[in-house]
Each structure stands twice: as structure tokens, then as C-alpha cells.
Design goal:
The chain has 261 residues and is an alpha/beta fold. Helices cover 60% and strands 11% of the residues. The chain is built from nine helices and seven strands; from the N terminus they run ααααβββαβαβαβαβα. The chain starts with a helix and ends with a helix.
């Protein structure tokens, strides 16, 4: 009975993971947050369908059984850590509140473009920034993002054009940072623009990014010396929300290992 329940759960979870990730990959969302869960789904489905054959093989080779148990134990430990991360992240996510605190600059972090056009995630960040930009026109606006793989246009430029075309924000009021390829570089390369405009890292500076990205981006900025950060979180589209959390989990770990915060 327990084995049947286990197989059913593995099959259901595996199908959900593979179908979800297949749809996202088909929509050109090929990244860590879609490929790894897809592979996990395949493993789950394989175990559910070929459970008897796998158990028969393991019974003949005790060292394989030990490896198999060790891998599943490791997966269990990882799963607990991921669920704790997701719970913590969920509790940190807050939607923008008004009125906004007065800031000297607004840095909008890049989030990917396709064929020169902001992805839904990046578009959400830009749309979220607009009310603050319109409320505080004296604050300088920085769109930060370099040229991605397969693209000929920088995110910084695409973001500025989006703000102008859809929201009427004058291009001469937007400073484009076009070299960064990571969150760490977003803040690092934006510092020169801030310095040129006479803005100190101790001044109030708004960071606009996706809700799930707020904790890590704030930690990175603080590590670089930004001391008065005002965070503005944009909602992540539901279709990619949990895949984004999955990818952020590994990004948070790698950032800690690399000393980004």
C-alpha cells in the first residue's frame, strides 16, 4: 500500500514538474529554474513507472542500493532546505506601499530581454518603477543591464526605450548602464553614474526588482556600501513564479560562496 502511494506521488509530482517546465522551455525560458526541475520530474516519473525493475536491480547489487539510498537522503535534506528558503522568501516579499520615501536615485535592475524586448518579468519591474518616477521627477533613473547571450541590444537601452514608449518617460531623464551581466555588476557599474551626478551611496536610493530578488539584491548592494536602500518589489508573473524561486535558491547560495554579500 505504501509503495503504491509513493509511486503515485512520484508520478503526479513528476508529471507536474515536466509539463510545467516543458511549457516554459517551449516559450524560450531556458534556465536553471526550468531545466533542473524538468530533469527532476523525469527521474520521478522513471521511478514511478519502473519501480519494480529498479528495486529488483538494487536487490542484486547492494552497493547500488547504498548509493541509491544516499542520493535520496541527500535529496530529502536539500528539499527541506529549499522549503525553508521558500518560506523565508515568501515572508520577505512585500508589495510596493505608498507614499514613497523621497530618494535621490532609482535603479531598475535588468531581468532579461528577448529580441530586444523586455520579458514579462522585466516589464513588471519597469511598470512598478513608473509611479515612483512620476512622483519624484527630480530623482535620477538608472536602467541597468548589459547585452545578453544572443542579443545585440543592451537591457539598459531596451528598458529605457520601454519606459519612453509605454509610459512617456523622457529618454534624456534616463541614464543607461549597459555593461552589467549580474546583480553585483548592476550596483557596481551604477556607482559611476551616481558619482557623476553627485549622489553618495549614503543617500536614499531606490532599488526596483522582482519580489523574489529583493533580499539578495539588497544584501549585495549593502556589501558594496549602499547604506540607505529603499526597495520596490514588482510582482512575479504566476506562470514563472515558483521556477524563479527555485533558481533564486541556487543564486543565493552561489552568491554567498562567491562573497557577494
Amino acid at each position: 500500500m505504501l509503495i503504491n502511494i509513493t509511486r503515485a506521488l512520484l508520478l503526479i509530482i513528476g508529471l507536474v514538474l515536466t509539463i510545467d517546465c516543458t511549457l516554459l522551455i517551449a516559450a524560450d525560458k531556458i534556465n536553471f529554474g526550468t531545466v533542473v526541475p524538468f530533469l527532476m520530474g523525469i527521474v520521478f516519473i522513471t521511478h514511478a513507472v519502473f519501480w519494480s525493475k529498479i528495486q529488483s536491480l538494487l536487490s542484486k547489487h547492494q552497493y547500488l542500493r547504498r548509493v541509491w539510498k544516499t542520493l535520496w537522503a541527500g535529496f530529502g535534506i536539500w528539499l527541506v532546505s529549499f522549503l525553508m528558503f521558500a518560506f523565508t522568501l515568501h515572508n520577505h516579499i512585500k508589495q510596493p506601499n505608498e507614499p514613497f520615501e523621497k530618494v535621490e536615485a532609482i535603479i531598475i535592475l535588468g531581468g532579461g530581454i528577448q529580441d530586444g524586448i523586455p520579458t514579462p518579468t522585466l516589464a513588471s519591474r519597469l511598470d512598478t518603477a513608473v509611479p515612483l518616477i512620476e512622483e519624484q521627477p527630480e530623482a535620477i533613473v538608472i536602467t541597468s543591464g548589459g547585452v545578453g547571450i544572443g542579443e545585440t541590444r543592451s537591457e539598459g537601452e531596451a528598458m529605457a526605450q520601454y519606459l519612453y514608449a509605454l509610459h512617456g518617460i523622457p529618454l534624456n531623464n534616463i541614464y543607461q548602464e549597459k555593461k552589467s551581466t549580474s546583480t553585483e555588476e548592476n550596483f557596481l557599474f551604477s556607482q559611476q553614474i551616481l558619482a557623476d551626478k553627485g549622489i553618495s551611496l549614503e543617500d536614499p536610493i531606490a532599488i526596483v526588482t522582482s519580489d523574489f530578488h529583493i533580499p539578495r539584491s539588497k544584501a549585495i548592494a549593502e556589501q558594496q556600501g549602499y547604506t540607505h536602500i529603499v526597495t520596490l518589489a514588482s510582482p512575479t508573473p504566476l506562470a514563472i513564479r515558483y521556477n524563479s524561486w527555485f533558481r533564486e535558491y541556487f543564486a543565493y547560495i552561489s552568491g554567498w560562496i562567491l562573497g557577494e554579500y
